[in-house]
DNA sequence: AATGAATGAGACTTCATTCAT
DNA sequence: CATGAATGAAGTCTCATTCAT
């Protein structure tokens, strides 16, 4: 007696996830070109051929992985949208970014990795460029709300800080004082501190 | 009339440079794995075989390219060391970073690209990690000199800003308001502004 | 109410026929190597696995398809044997060949296709070679009966005409004036015309 | 010291020919799909990879092989155009076709083979369809000149005879009385016999 | 009897590297 | 010093076949 449709669907879903997860990790670690389907298959504990039962090409698999990143971005945006107070929004943005960075380090590694791989660039930009733009706009809007003088420039700077920190953290990992920096950043962009200088008085 | 030894040596140097330059451009554009020796040879106007006369392997060529990046870093450091006034040092660091970013965009693209490719990572870190550390230390030292309250954290933040801006500029290029951001940053880290808040009073 | 043995057997036969028909069509269209078991299964509306329930291998399936062609030949031979008058036999041979060509174009396409594929060649020859020989002999016998001067050579020529026409029709299909040629051929091999020249007098 | 351009060119030409020849033989024997690049490389005594130095894909190689066939056709047409007398033209066409069939059997095998391979069909028709049309037209023109009553139909018949004979010869080879048939055909289409019936008077 | 997930061999293709000249 | 033909390993992808359910 054949398996039910549901059983098959479950099997498929499970295997597909396994492939995606391992592809994400490996792409993040070794880049798109540097990762072979064989690598992914072995890492996922399946045969090379099976990967093609789920993704019609390595490229297609990459696009699916990109969509995972997009979803991660979406989760960030949704969480931010649930917060109305602009100061809390700022705090949340910093907290979430760094938390996600620590938790899903590979996501960010992949995100940055993909951003510089020409085979991926266009798709990466189509899929992620919007998220970046939305994020910039969001920061800008917050800055307008709280009364920052140069919201456009300041949004670029906060954006740069967040991605710059991610960049350094991914590169240096164990050596980077991520928690210290996070605490400091939260304070710096806190309501009470936003009006003070970074210099001693 | 046979060429003198010196002439030969000069030719060799010239050919080597041509290979390195083209390798740099192509690695930056298409990644390490995405660039073939043939691509590089064609781009440099020489034969595949000749490239192996100058570099014993593709890997070796990559290491040499990495050294070019290191030299670029060195030039930045040397320029900074020639300046004693800490405020001017800060200004110079921002100016030079962004100027180099615009002028030698490919350097940075490659730098970031390599930073995420595991075949390259270790070497990239060995060669560039130190530079990064030196830069962080330099910023920290400047901040100490001018009396910033939290020099360690602030150095991480300025470092993040500079690399974050580079990151966004490389990704968005034509759309990114690099000049506006540069001007703003210079003002923000100027002697007169370092003591003011980013909020309207 | 459980099905009777006979009903089961009938179902099996029906499924088998469905597979064979679709295999024939696809082999004819895309060649043996160009057709996958999956293609056939999908086309027949069954699962890949089930196809192996009926044919132990793709090769085995192909042999079964070849047998279908053999049967088609047999039908032609049987129809011819039912006719005694040699002139009518000739007419019938031409009519039937061209009718079958138009009706079961795929049969012929496959027949010719298989004739040139070495994986299939031996079997194709074993199975079809005899039919061809029988047909040649039959034509020869007819020509002897009606008093053709060189029955051996003329039988090769009529054989060549029939297969040549099939060849051109399959290749050119819509452009080939099959009906005109058929009419002309029937006249040319008609009792009354067999004694006249093909030149104007 | 590097080889001269001429030396390289010679090497290339020689290897390319070797590949083409072996590809022709193997495609003719085992079909396009049935022949692997590895088969061809081994048969040509070169490495798999080298084949791609000469043909950018298996498909491209096939097209080149098709062009060889086209050239063979051209040679036939050119030889025919050098003859003005229509009767001699007919004789020549029959002679040449059968001579080429015997000499370059693989060409014809491939020609027929390709005509039924869907991966090849379109190209085969583009490249060979014209030749076929030209040949039909040529025969028709000859028949008009010599005063055949139904030149269109008779040209289809002679065309069918020639391709039908080729077909049977390729399939049966050693068993097929090709010389007998050739002699008979030459007589049948000779000036003196064209006005007589194929029946005993 | 029936399904389609899974395997593994083998096909096409690319490319770093070697080498004869 | 310089060339590009040639190799072979490795990568992408396909597909006949098996098998658990």
Your description of this structure?
- 4 copies of one chain form a homotetramer.
- By secondary structure, chain A is mainly α.
- Chain A folds into 2 domains: about 1-55, Arc Repressor Mutant, subunit A, CATH 1.10.10.60; about 65-200, Tetracycline Repressor, domain 2.
- The first copy, chain A, is about 80% helix and about 0% strand.
- Chain A has 9 helices and no strands.
- Chain A has helices at about 5-30, 35-45, 50-55, 60-80, 85-105, 105-115, 120-145, 150-170, 180-190.
- In chain A, helix 1 (about 5-30) packs across helix 4.
- The radius of gyration of chain A is 20 Å and the shape is elongated.
- Mean pLDDT of chain A is about 90; it is low at about 195-200.
- Chains in contact: A-B, C-D.
- At the A-B interface, helix 6, helix 7, helix 8 and helix 9 of A face helix 6, helix 7, helix 8 and helix 9 of B.
- Chain A binds a DNA duplex (21 and 21 nucleotides) through helix 1 and helix 3.
In short:
The structure is a homotetramer of 201-residue chains. With 201 residues, chain A is an all-alpha fold.
Q: What is the tally of beta strands of chain A?
A: 0
In the CATH hierarchy, the third-tier topology of the largest domain in chain A is known as: Tetracycline Repressor, domain 2
Query: What is the rounded Rg of chain A?
Result: 20 Å
Anisotropy-based shape of chain A: elongated
**How would you name the CATH homologous superfamily of the largest domain in chain A?**
Tetracycline Repressor, domain 2
Count the domains of chain A. Answer: 2
- Helix-strand sequence of chain A: HHHHHHHHH
CATH architecture of the largest domain in chain A: Orthogonal Bundle
Question: Main beta sheet of chain A: strand number and arrangement?
Answer: none
Low-confidence stretches of chain A: 197-201
Q: Assign the CATH class of the largest domain in chain A.
A: Mainly Alpha
Number of helices of chain A: 9
**Proportion of strand residues of chain A:** under 5%
Based on helices, strands and strand pairing, what is the structural class of chain A? mainly alpha
Q: Could you give the distance between the termini of chain A?
A: 80 Å
Largest protein interface, residues of each chain: A-B, 52 and 52 residues
Mean pLDDT of chain A: 89
- Oligomeric state as shown: homotetramer
Helix content of chain A: over 70%
């Amino acid at each position: 007696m054949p398996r039910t449709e549901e059983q098959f669907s479950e099997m498929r879903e499970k295997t597909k996830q396994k492939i995606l997860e391992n592809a994400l990790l490996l792409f993040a670690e070794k880049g798109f070109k540097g990762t072979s389907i064989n690598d992914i298959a072995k890492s996922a504990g399946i045969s090379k051929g099976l990967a093609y039962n789920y993704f019609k090409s390595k490229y297609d698999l990459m696009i699916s992985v990109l969509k995972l990143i997009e979803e991660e971005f979406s989760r960030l945006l949704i969480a931010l949208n649930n917060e109305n107070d602009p100061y809390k929004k700022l705090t949340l943005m910093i907290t979430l970014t760094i938390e996600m960075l620590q938790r899903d380090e590979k996501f960010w590694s992949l995100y940055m990795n993909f951003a510089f791989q020409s085979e991926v660039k266009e798709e990466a930009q189509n899929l992620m460029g919007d998220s970046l733009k939305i994020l910039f706009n969001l920061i800008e809007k917050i800055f307008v709300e709280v009364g920052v003088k140069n919201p456009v420039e300041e949004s670029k700077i906060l954006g740069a800080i967040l991605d710059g920190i991610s960049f350094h953290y991914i590169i240096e990992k164990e050596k980077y004082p991520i928690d210290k920096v996070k605490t400091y950043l939260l304070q710096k962009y806190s309501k009470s501190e936003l009006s003070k200088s970074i210099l001693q008085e």
